[in-house]
Specification:
about 500 residues; alpha/beta; 3 domains; five-stranded mixed sheet; two-stranded antiparallel sheet; 16 helices; 7 strands; about 50% helix
């Protein structure tokens, strides 16, 4: 299997060939075959078992280019078939399926004549039905609110008029659905506000970026109680995940950016049949120190699954005041260090470790979704012997490997966190890794890539609030736009703070 760098070089060469005139000297089937081999190689590099990719977007963009090139060649073939009046070739492609809930607009295409050559009338004996996916670009509309005024002709007691409906933006033009669309576009679809303004302008709606920013800020303020309720609900759990990611923030005084962090606290009990709904809450902090994790987790007691960042050690310090927290560590991080070593050349010791860890993951695949007791029993029977072999492998090679070498450092990492790495053998709720929370952080990275940085600490806090609610919608299978529209409307209408839990995304999911 070629390395990623070799694949990228091959793609650059192939693109040049496709553009250059001599590319047409290759037969189309040869070009397609070569492209398809590259697609397969890239899919393996991006998603194979040995994959620990640093930038998944690079793979996705490259695959898009390759598949687009294949489609262009197929289109060329189809054009030639039409010109020669040959039947079009049927190709196995994934066209997807069209959901039943989409509205259907039927078109009946009748023959030009319904009279037979013999003079008789033709009658219908059947039909062919096909469906095509159509799209109407987002359409703006104006809701005109009229409030008639009434007065009595017999007296002068005054004028009667209905009260104006409450608005999220006092005196502003957007409906709650419009604000929800802006939020979803920015935080779920990663479209910065200035790009949204450009899209709206193409439809003749001129909205300044600062106007959109005002809508986002006001919505974030109104949604903070829901975010706080989400965070509080998560901390009532006895098993959570935690991770942190960079959130660069503009520092106006220093005329540069500073590094803030979004800390993610996540719950997902589905792998062991837990009934608590999944969710994630982000909290902005100006740094990465363990004191921020301690502040966010105030009141939480139970198992916290994390990576090997030393800042979490503060949570298990003997003099810490608060409920007891046990740290479970992440085998994916341990494996990653070994995989990096094996990529640089022959590394039989590292590869042996990866094979052993892979065996643990194979067992987890078999027991995923089972109750904690069943998972624990299977682990004691099947995983414990493998972990004993890992311990023996670790002890044997640590004694013979330089502590300063990459392999020595990887082995020291596993030894340092061995107790927390083995916690899955004592509790059926514990996962092998913290990938659950890492998946929730990926959209943050995409927004960071598009927006580069937040404009202020307060902007990063708003980012945390809205991203939390949108990602919690997604893991619960709730349409973020529908939920935001409903929730913002309820808040504007005076939803009681005492019933704030009713607004959490999973409660919305149970009502639709």
């Amino acid at each position: 299997m070629p390395e990623t760098a070799d694949l990228l070089e091959e793609i650059a060469t192939l693109k040049a060939m496709l553009i250059a005139s001599e590319a047409h000297n290759l037969r189309k089937d040869e070009r397609i075959e070569r492209l398809e081999k590259l697609v397969a190689a890239f899919r393996h590099a991006a998603f194979g078992r040995r994959s620990e990719k640093s930038d998944p977007d690079q793979f996705e963009l490259t695959l898009e280019d390759l598949e687009t090139a294949i489609a262009a060649i197929h289109a060329e073939e189809d054009a030639e078939d039409r010109a020669a009046k040959r039947p079009a070739k049927l190709r196995a492609v994934n066209r997807g399926s069209l959901p039943k809930h989409l509205p259907r607009i039927e078109e009946v295409i009748e023959p030009e004549r319904l009279t037979c050559a013999c003079g008789g009338c033709l009658h219908r004996i059947g039909e062919d039905v096909s469906e095509r996916l159509d799209i109407v670009p987002a359409q703006f509309r104006v809701i005109v609110i009229r409030r008639p005024k009434y007065a009595c002709r017999s007296c002068t007691d005054g004028v009667t008029q209905a009260s104006a409906p409450a608005r999220l933006i006092p005196g502003g033009m957007p409906t709650e659905a419009t604000v929800a669309h802006v939020l979803v576009s920015k935080y779920a679809d990663h479209l910065p506000l200035y790009r949204q303004a450009q899209i709206y302008s193409r439809q003749g709606v001129d909205l300044d970026r600062s106007t959109l920013a005002d809508w986002v800020g006001r919505a974030a303020f109104e949604l903070r109680p829901v975010h706080d309720a989400l965070l509080a609900d998560l901390k009532q759990s006895t098993k959570l995940f935690m991770d942190e990611t960079r959130a660069p923030v503009l520092d106006p005084g220093a005329r540069k950016t500073k590094t803030g962090y979004l800390w993610a606290l996540a719950r997902d009990d589905r792998s062991w049949g837990g009934t608590a709904p999944p969710g994630v809450a982000f909290t902005y902090a100006p740094g990465r120190g363990g004191q921020h994790a301690e502040r966010i987790l105030q009141g939480f007691g139970g198992i916290l699954q994390v990576d090997g960042y030393a800042g979490y050690n503060r949570l298990i310090a003997p003099d810490r005041i608060g409920p007891d927290i046990q740290l479970a560590y992440c085998w994916a991080h341990a494996r990653r260090k070994l995989i990096e070593i094996s990529r640089t050349g022959s590394a039989p010791i590292a590869e042996a470790g990866v094979t052993l860890i892979r065996a643990l993951y194979a067992i987890e695949t078999d027991i995923r979704g089972s109750e904690p007791a069943a998972r624990l029993a299977a682990r004691q029977e099947r995983s414990a012997p493998i972990l004993a072999r890992i311990d023996a492998w670790l002890s044997h090679h640590r004694a013979r490997t330089s502590a300063k070498s990459p392999l020595g450092e990887a082995l020291a990492y596993i030894a340092k966190y061995r107790d927390g790495l083995g916690r899955f053998l004592a509790d059926g709720r514990v996962e092998l890794d913290s990938n659950t929370v890492e998946r929730t952080i990926r959209p943050i990275a995409l927004n960071r890539k598009n927006a580069l940085f937040a404009g202020h600490d307060a902007g990063a806090e708003n980012w945390a609030v809205i991203a939390s609610l949108i990602e919690t919608c997604k893991v619960n299978g709730v349409d973020p736009h529908a939920w935001l529209t409903t929730t913002l409307t309820a808040i504007v209408k005076g939803h009681k703070q005492s019933n704030i839990l009713d607004l959490l995304p999973w409660n919305y999911a149970s009502t639709v």
